[in-house]
Amino acid sequence: MRWLPELRRWQSARLEAGFAQLLSNPRSAPAARFFLTDVYGDHDFSRRDADIARVLPMMRGLLPVTLLDTVTDGIELGALTHAFDLRMAEALQRVAPRRSRLDGALYAQVYREIGLPRLREHQIDLIGEVGHGLARALAMPGMSTLLKVSRGPAKAAGLAELQGFLERGFTAFAELGDVEAFIDQIDLNERTLAQRLFDGDEDPFQDGS
């Protein structure tokens, strides 16, 4: 799709701006960067998530269910985000076939045309579920040690993608102080922006959201 790379480029810049405050704080910066690169960024996670989903059943006896449920939420978030990107790219081709660059006004127009507010709300819910799930798992006794010990066996068993996702998440969240405040800030930013876009706000990105 001709518009897909440009859409992802534009959304990546938008997310960077929306995460600016979190990225500027040394304590929250690693967790914010993890969200942008592994959870809710401009990348196509479908190949990675398919690999993780394939091996997830065999991990049921090795990792806590709570942690595996968080991974499942992450896979669902990646699939839903990718589906929205495809719909947006299709709509952009239809609405602006001669243009090559995206701006806020065109993005807002296509966002409203795609609609599906309940699914957009569910997408934001999943962001919070992944964040809270990682935080809960981090608090489990011995989880950090378990991940370190499983690194070699996981690689040998073809579980490197899952292992990498969990280790990066744990490393990022270990430096975070108030997890609730971190997740609440992302949740507020994304819900506020979605409401502005659906309401037809003349400048929905007014504060960098």
SSE inventory with pairings:
Layout: H1 4-18, H2 20-24, H3 29-39, H4 46-55, H5 65-95, H6 104-114, H7 117-138, H8 143-156, H9 160-174, H10 179-199
Helix pairs in contact: 3-9, 4-5, 5-6, 5-7, 7-10, 8-9
Q: How confident is the prediction overall: mean pLDDT?
A: 85
Radius of gyration: 18 Å
Number of helices: 10
Helix content: over 70%
Summarize the biggest pleated sheet. Answer: none
Q: How many domains comprise the coordinates?
A: 1
Structural class: mainly alpha
Order of helices and strands: HHHHHHHHHH
Please characterize this protein's 3D structure.
By secondary structure, this protein is mainly α. The protein has one domain. 74% of the residues lie in helices and 0% in strands. The chain contains 10 helices and no strands. It is globular. The mean pLDDT is 85.
Give a nutshell description of this structure:
With 209 residues, the chain is an all-alpha fold. It is built from ten helices and no strands. The chain has helices at 4-18, 20-24, 29-39, 46-55, 65-95, 104-114, 117-138, 143-156, 160-174, 179-199.
